[in-house]
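Hey, I'm writing a tutorial for new members on how sequence and structure tokens pair up, and I'd like a real worked example in the thread rather than a made-up one. If someone can provide the structure for the chain below, I'll link this post from the tutorial.
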Amino acid sequence: MKTGSEKETRLHIDAATCAGCGRCVTVCPFGALESDGSVAVVNANCTFCGACVDRCPFGSIVLHRAKRAGGADLSAYRGVWVFGEQLDGRIQPVVYELIGAGRALADKLGEPLGVVVLGSRMDSACRDLLAYPVDQVLQVDAPELAVYASEPYATALSRLAEERKPAIVLAGATAVGRSFLARVAVSVHTGITADCTGLDITEDGLLRQTRPAFGGNIMASILCANHRPQMATVRHGVMRAASRQSRGGTLEKVAMPRAVFSSRTRRLDFMAEMGDRLNLSDAQVVVAGGRGLGGADGFAMLEELAGRLGGAVAASRGAVDAGWAAYARQVGQTGRTVNPKLYIACGISGAVQHRVGMAGSEVIVAINNDPEAPIFEVATYGILADVREAVPALIEALGPPTGRTE
């Protein structure tokens, strides 16, 4: 039996009913259970995950979860926060999308919108955020925060959330947002919905978080009714970025003890995932390939076409699953969302899961030899042709490659 008072989370094993069968020992992923053949015993490795509770056929294991002291007073939580992700001192594009979404949520609640920026020497970037429709920018400035590390970032945001009590906290579903916001949720004892594609406020004032589920076959709506703050990461490219429209917001520099910024890790080097290619989510021209290309070699001509247009190359899930393209290129419900000025779909049938990821494109050109392909339903221009003939013809007509611009 795990020692501790009744107020602590603990695992209790009833020695009177435990048969010492060892099933709980085999299912524990942390090696926290032992059995001598007569009764199971829990050791200090236990994380209270509960796997053993479901495994025990005799109902001998009970997990007592501690309640937070005094419970959570939900009425004390107010306002919407956006995590102001930065890289090398530059606010990332997803932040402006979150400001647009956060402003709509805050207006429905009749509450303020704030942006939290963690970094070093971010004064200019923080002042610039005040040109957007935010009510407050909270700046935590320290040399240790110049380069992202999950421990100090999570500790700083957790401490700030516990002190200021925002009702909603949003971050981009980026490598940074995904890696540390879950740590914040655990620290402040709340839930988090990852990779949201839609946000709204219910009649009861709760945050409705919508995300793809079961491989993108359904859309799940998730509520966090009993804990605060309500937290979500949001997919880049699905929300419309806020325009510059100042509300006369304020900038507050928040001081924290140096111990908050301690970390057991440090960054040695940084290598961009896609080398010198354009970031797919930010590209103004996207050339995408699907199963209609017939093989991985078909992407070589798409690279050439993208080079002529100064764009980036993407792929459908079918092409990625076939091993013809990396997952980093996947556009769709289970991949990236893009909103370029020009989207050229080459050999893509246009399943609804793919269309969700590119439907916001200004101009869509579809190349397919199937006149019934669903992609033609959303295309601005359709080319009914074999993609292996049409793309080389386009390349020849466009001439030498252009310089790529962000």
